[in-house]
Amino acid sequence: MTDPAANAELALLLEVAGTPKPGNVDRHRDLANLRFEHFLAGAVGARPGLDLAAGGAPVGEAFETAVEGMSRQSGGNTQFGCLLLLVPLVKAAAAGDLSPDGVAAVRDATTVEDAAGFYRAFEHADVAVADPPQGMDALDVRCGVDAVPVLRDRDLTLADVLARSEGDANAREWREGFPRTFRAAESMLADDGPMADRAARAFLDLLAGSEDTLVRVQHGPEVAREVRERAAGIESTAEAEAWADELVERGVNPGTTADLTAAALFVALERGAEV
Amino acid sequence: MTDPAANAELALLLEVAGTPKPGNVDRHRDLANLRFEHFLAGAVGARPGLDLAAGGAPVGEAFETAVEGMSRQSGGNTQFGCLLLLVPLVKAAAAGDLSPDGVAAVRDATTVEDAAGFYRAFEHADVAVADPPQGMDALDVRCGVDAVPVLRDRDLTLADVLARSEGDANAREWREGFPRTFRAAESMLADDGPMADRAARAFLDLLAGSEDTLVRVQHGPEVAREVRERAAGIESTAEAEAWADELVERGVNPGTTADLTAAALFVALERGAEV
């Protein structure tokens, strides 16, 4: 009998351990003010929220609790995006259907209160996000708790909010039933060797497969395209190592791809991958 | 409000992340069949047992549960010794007295059932131990559950058993009220920089301070003395790094000193050290 909350926490830890993951904190690299140990503390801190999700609590409550706990370390935002993917996956696993349909059912059952929990979570962490789409200013996630009355007025569930988050790779997973997550999990299961190494390889595949949201938000579409193309051309671990050093140096951090990697690790662990 | 179980799990993670810790798995080094990710999984797996300890369960039950969970990874024994120190410390913290007296009170309250849990824990992990003292053959920990009737016959508590474990540094902490653990925790609190770096420095100090039990069991007293003396002579991180490579190469693994480091990290976190 597996415990989905424990596997989710382990997925967070294996994700950050996987190396090289170009541009991200990994077992061999820290960023300037964001260190490996901040991710360790973030993963442990997220556990009570993950336990809530595994116990059947609403997505919004579980997510806000996870983010609040994650944030009790001095590095800032470590795993906000990972948790946005993991919470519905943990709920689907706990309900006995960890599949695209199962997680779509979790999504479709979300309420306005779940959306409120999502917005409140932004109060606990400094998350880099794009400007909201036209007409959505009052629902800019950077408004945090101030957006909650607007959610209630417009009767928007968390699924509604994420359906409107165009261009965000994590919101896209929510909308589409986590296709990239499940595909990457199957690649990891078909791969061999230590799980953290499989995670690093899956990270590069995901990065080659589509542009990283965080890179686009922080550096613009041209850098996002360049990073994707470069990832697609990597042919050896040595090349990946050199590129990892280069991206850290340039401050280019494909963090959304790391979120997807953590989500895929969780699915792989639930489907029998062993450390 | 801190959660002692969460801090104990984080202590396990920070301990293995700390580098260089000569001879041990650390952020930059794996051993042949014992990898960094086995320690991540071991820490997550130990959590239910640590939660039991924080909730006031008996030491033996909490310890056996922690070891059983820790062992659900393919690397073998990762944190048996750490957990033997952490469980009574977590209980003392949860009871509001994380001090030499507080942990001595936990020790003095142990029962024959706690001793039985300790012996049963050896069924879950392959732990390297010395031969038992004369007249103690029937209580060799390697007997595991078979020793339990003997414990009952002789009415031996866990404190009694550990009082008879001569030459074991972890048992000595139990006997003496964890003096090295609390001293190393105070050094970490007085130190500065990232906690994993403080842990690596504390590890070297502890190793210079007394011979490592696991090194003596596996390689004999001369190697244990050599390692202690060498640790005392280390004067720079560069020297420590080179020595770390050398010890991994030789298969000399000061694992008991890592146990003490994890215990000290827990005390430091409970006393306000922040990641």
Automatic annotation (TrEMBL), chains A, B:
Protein's name in the database: Triphosphoribosyl-dephospho-CoA synthase
One GO molecular-function entry: ATP binding
Originating species: Halorarum salinum
InterPro entries: CitG
